[in-house]
Design a protein that fits this description.
Blueprint: E1 6-7, E2 13-15, H1 17-28, H2 30-37, H3 39-42, H4 56-70, H5 74-89, H6 111-127, H7 131-148, H8 156-160, H9 166-176, H10 179-191, H11 199-203, H12 215-221, H13 224-228, H14 239-251, E3 273-274, H15 275-292, H16 295-311, E4 323-324, E5 327-328, H17 358-362, H18 366-371, E6 375-378, E7 381-384, E8 390-396, E9 399-407, E10 414-431, E11 438-442, E12 445-446, E13 453-469, E14 472-477, E15 481-486, E16 489-494, E17 497-502, E18 518-523, E19 529-540, E20 555-563, E21 586-596, E22 603-604
Parallel strand pairs: 7-10
Antiparallel strand pairs: 1-6, 2-8, 3-4, 5-22, 6-7, 8-9, 9-10, 10-13, 11-12, 11-13, 14-15, 15-16, 16-21, 16-22, 17-18, 19-20, 20-21
Helix pairs in contact: 4-5, 4-6, 6-7, 6-9, 7-10, 12-15, 15-16
Length: about 625
């Protein structure tokens, strides 16, 4: 299956506006400093050290590299090159690239081979360094030969994530078109996990660790058919649609996530979702949209990017959660009974390395790869795929063309495109209009537009302005609860809190000290509410330096609410009950301001609606 749309590179796309600011925050935070403070990256076996030599350095580089190039940060680019050079220097003569001995290869989980191949592909596309292609070629040819002769096989993580290899393999095949590449594709498919055969276990989750219900695998695997179909000479059967529907129906959350702490956890607002899975699900949706052109994947991506991902990080991106919850009225270490399926009692805290360190390394890819998906190349022009502020500089038919999108979307519904061509050139400019957009206007004129705006014409220097409205809706949720949504933004009752900073001199060899420390959040405001009216008032604000500010959101909704006796989950002091003990109103109707889910650290998202007579 060939892609419907092609991705531009970091040389062509640059973030602007709030998106650039978000990437700058990430670069100034944990992502941009992990190689200075975290032993598993700073002293990794990948660069000759004695710490973790498997997935953590590749995970980090997968986001750090595009972040560096998107921001044109010379220091970060040099640091990325230092790591890539060290990794290449360690490649063996036969092509093996991971830091282990020949004797260890059969028991070394080759998920790391798949991942580092993907990272090298990202580096090649960002840097343009042609020698990287040879490194990828040697790596995957060696992988093929070892798999074919039975020296190694796929097991555990490599078996579960076999399709990740296709990010690099597709790139190689587009250039070399050698038969062994298709043979490798078949071997990977044959030895890899067949997720379609496990859908029944997704419907009734149990608290048992399984690869086939692991939440990060769920986020990754949605794209498996799209990325592998062409090399497998297989038809595209839209398996992602089926799998996504099952996961959503039995494990869905209001923000397009699936519950999974660490494995699928059913329809519960007090079970969490691992941070890694948010980043991976975003990437899957980006590729699904590029491969299929089906706008539903882009709309799902928006919901994740504007809600779930910012919510799982602190504003300054020095801290992240391992697990985020829809109804999260406190983030306090659980002493005693643990509500999470297979995760630890600190998994929901914000910090350096809550629970496992995979998310510490892997959360870095979400925003940079999202930025690289803002514009896509069509067969006859340019598509504005995701409406976030950015600037594309490319060539169309040999003519230099710049397209800049100026917008505050999703906080405002106005998109202004400035299109400049060095000399007149004809091409199709398309802009994806969300399906929920109402009263659409193009350059001030009403339109009955459905789907993409498509303008096929000769361009020189022009401005195209699109405005639209989005309705506020109450969306039904399980357990007779509901959530509030406006466009791609989900809104929640924000819970104010006092912060308890946790610093450790030593803890599993990792020092925690400000700013890379851990935090507990204790609630200081009421959270036991129900909606008392379906009427909401939009409140716009200027915001502050943080695009997804907790203290100063750029958009809020005024809502009528009433207290109810919600209660705590049995056996806990800092966990709200899965469903309210009582839905009977207590007291009079109050007006409060709801905040976007992504602008909260503590929140109540799924709450009841009651009629207060």
């Amino acid at each position: 299956m060939k892609t419907k749309y092609s991705l531009y590179t970091s040389k062509e796309i640059k973030p602007t506006g709030w998106l650039k600011r978000q990437l700058e925050i990430q670069a100034d935070g944990l992502s941009g400093n992990l190689d200075k403070v975290w032993p598993d990256v700073r002293d990794s076996k990948w660069i000759g050290g004695d710490c973790e030599g498997w997935e953590r350095v590749p995970y980090w580089l997968d986001g750090f590299i595009p972040l560096a190039y998107l921001l044109e940060n010379e220091d970060m680019i040099a640091r990325a090159k230092k790591y890539i050079d060290a990794i290449i220097a360690g490649q063996q003569e036969d092509g093996w690239i991971c830091p282990c001995t020949v004797e260890e290869r059969p028991t070394y989980d080759t998920w790391a081979v798949q991942l580092i191949s993907k990272v090298l592909t990202v580096y090649y596309e960002c840097s343009g360094d042609e020698k990287i292609l040879e490194v990828i070629y040697k790596t995957l040819k060696n992988y093929y030969e070892l798999l074919k002769n039975g020296t190694i096989s796929l097991f555990e993580w490599a078996k579960a994530r076999w399709f990740e290899t296709f990010i690099a393999l597709n790139k190689l095949y587009s250039i070399y078109k050698e038969d062994w590449m298709k043979d490798l594709a078949k071997i990977l498919k044959e030895q890899g996990l067949d997720y379609e055969s496990y859908t029944e276990v997704w419907k009734h989750p149990v608290y048992k660790w399984k690869f086939e219900t692991h939440i990060v695998n769920m986020g990754m695997m949605l794209k498996y058919e799209a990325v592998s179909a062409e090399l497998l000479d297989a038809p595209y059967t839209k398996i992602a649609d089926k799998l996504n529907d099952i996961l959503s129906r039995y494990n869905g959350t209001p923000v397009e996530l699936f519950t999974g702490d660490e494995c699928l956890a059913g329809l519960s607002p007090i079970h969490g979702t691992e941070c890694c899975s948010v980043a991976e699900q975003m990437y899957s949706y980006e590729l699904l949209y590029a491969y299929t052109g089906d706008k539903k994947w882009a709309e799902k991506l928006e919901v994740l990017a504007f809600n779930a991902f910012p919510a799982t990080n602190t504003e300054d991106m020095w801290g992240h959660q391992y697990d985020q919850l829809s109804n999260q009225m406190a983030c306090v270490r659980f002493d005693g009974k643990n509500p999470f399926g297979t995760n630890g009692n600190e998994s929901h805290l914000f910090g350096l390395e809550p629970n496992y360190g995979c998310c510490t390394a892997n959360f870095n890819q979400a925003w940079p790869k999202f930025a690289l998906s803002t514009f896509m190349k069509t067969r006859n022009g340019i598509l504005s795929a995701v409406p976030a502020p950015s600037k594309l500089t490319t060539e169309v038919k040999g003519v230099p063309v710049t397209v800049e999108l100026i917008t505050e979307y999703p906080f405002r519904n106005k998109l202004t495109y400035k299109i400049d061509a060095e000399r007149p050139v004809k091409f199709n400019f398309s802009a994806r209009i969300p399906s929920f957009a109402k009263n659409i206007k193009v350059n001030g004129e009403n339109t009955s537009l459905r789907g993409n705006l498509c303008l096929d014409k000769e361009w020189t220097n022009e401005t195209v302005e699109i405005t639209f409205d989005t309705e506020i809706t109450l969306v039904k949720r399980p357990h007779d609860l509901c959530c509030v949504k406006k466009g791609s933004l989900v809104f929640a009752v924000p819970v104010e809190y006092k912060s308890n900073m946790l610093e450790y001199t030593t803890r599993e060899t990792v020092v925690r000290k400000f700013p890379y420390c851990d935090y507990e959040f204790y609630p200081t405001s009421d959270w036991n509410y129900a909606y008392a009216s379906k009427d909401f008032k939009v409140v716009e604000a200027e915001g502050d330096e943080f695009p997804f500010s907790v203290k100063n959101p750029r958009l809020m909704l005024e809502a009528d609410v009433v207290h109810i006796d919600w209660g705590l989950e049995d056996g806990y002091l800092n966990l709200c009950a899965k469903t309210p003990k009582s839905r009977k109103p207590v007291g009079e109707i109050e007006k409060i301001k709801l905040q976007p889910y992504g602008c909260t650290n503590l929140r109540m998202t799924e709450i009841p609606f009651v009629n207060k007579k």
